Amino acid sequence: MESVTDRACAAALYAEGDAALDTGASLLAADPDADAEAHRRGEEFVRRAWERGWHPADLVRYVRRELDGRRAALAATLIAAETARYTELPPRWRRQLAELPPPVPRNRPDRFGYAADLLELYRVLLRLPAIEPAGPLPGAAADRLHRPPAADEPRMLTRIRALLAKAEATGFPEEAEALTTKAQELMARHTIDEALLAARTHSRETPGACRIGVEPPYESAKAVLLDAVSSANRCRAVWNEDLGFSTVVGFEPDLEAVELLFTSLLVQGTTAMTRSEAGRRAGGRKRTKTFRQAFWMGYAQRLGGRLAADAERVTAEADTGTDGGGGLLPVLAARDVAVSDTAERMFPRTTTTRLRGVSDLDGWTQGTEAADRARMGGSGSGSPGGRDGEIMA
To answer: What residues have CB less than 8 Å from 51, skipping those under 6 apart?
Structure first.
């Protein structure tokens, strides 16, 4: 016998328009006994999302883009309920679950409105595209979920986070520069230590992947910044503009570094742009979208050059001190090949997208100066002059 939930879903999910949605919501709202089954149906849709490559943060971000924050919080509620059934979860999943919006109370503000939200969310979940898998599914065997960390890894990551948090909080550009530079140096040295340890122990560790949200506005420039951070930390980033994220491929310690540094540089860049706009207003000039786009592109392009230079410097210094010199580069080269091979298997049809050059000289200048204040070491230069960026997509 067909249940109320079956009839509501049949009415709302497989037909377009508000009338179909209202019909399904009315059926659910009229029958309180259908609540549990309606939510179980939502958990089934969430479970199918995992099988299609999605992770909790990806799903919430996508629902927010397609609908709004209210339905994104409802998705988070279903995610929390669905994942509670697993005894094992990948570490990155646990971190994402901890950052979900708080659960949404059922049937608020009223039964009909809540049912309509639920069914509209199900419409989105039902039509989710399949994306590239990035790590094990929840419930996988424990030996697939946990990599024994290096002895100093928790302490090192804690120290890096602390340095970046201070860089974000300080009002003194010179202090932010010094703190961020030190954090990147620690990341680079930690990557080198991990690579040498893996070589000595003949580790079977292979590259993995994570997805990092690239949120509007000015997402193209932010994707360039993420690509620069990834390259400097021996990873590959592939941007999916339509779904609002980049997939970063690399070894786990390097993925951690990319996530930490990119998030911090976004915060620092936003703070610097706000300060620059305040200066423009004080000088009688208006804030414009063109200025902001140019700011972010200048910030991303300049940081890319400085990150690359700093990575080369730290690697060269470490190589001269490794077994009399020359022992590090082959190890890193082998890991680079492994990362490239993994990225090409995951994304066999990537293209290089050329981004439109910027035209606001003031925005570019302010952005490059902000990058200098957050620089990672080395030197770089550039000017807008119609300059384009490139990114894998």
So the answer is: 137
Q: How far apart are CA 370 and CA 180, in angstroms?
A: 13
Q: How far, in Å, CA of 90 to CA of 220, rounded?
A: 30
**How far apart are the C-alpha atoms of 315 and 227, rounded to whole Å?**
19
Angstrom distance (rounded) from CA 255 to CA 317: 23
Contact by Cβ (8 Å): 296, 218: yes
pLDDT tens-digit map of 244-275? 999 999 998 899 889 989 999 998 888 888 88
Closest listed residue to residue 133, CA positions, set 334, 307, 345 = 345
Look at strands 389-392 and 352-355 and give their pairing: antiparallel
Confidence of residue 56 (pLDDT cuts 50, 70, 90): very high
What is d(CA 351, CA 392) in angstroms, rounded to the nearest whole number?
6
E runs forming strands in 131-243: 208-213, 236-240
Task: Provide the pLDDT for residue 172.
Answer: 76
Tell me which residue of 59, 170, 74 sits closest to 115, measured CA to CA.
74
Which residue from 152, 185, 181, 191 is spatially nearest to 328, judged by alpha carbons?
Answer: 191
Whole-prediction pTM: 0.80
CA dist 12 → 2, 106, 120, 257 (Å): 15, 19, 8, 44
Cα separation of 17 and 94, whole Å?
Answer: 37
CA distance 309 to 303: 10
Contact 239, 223 (CB under 8 A): yes
- The label of the residue with tokens 């990537």 reads 350
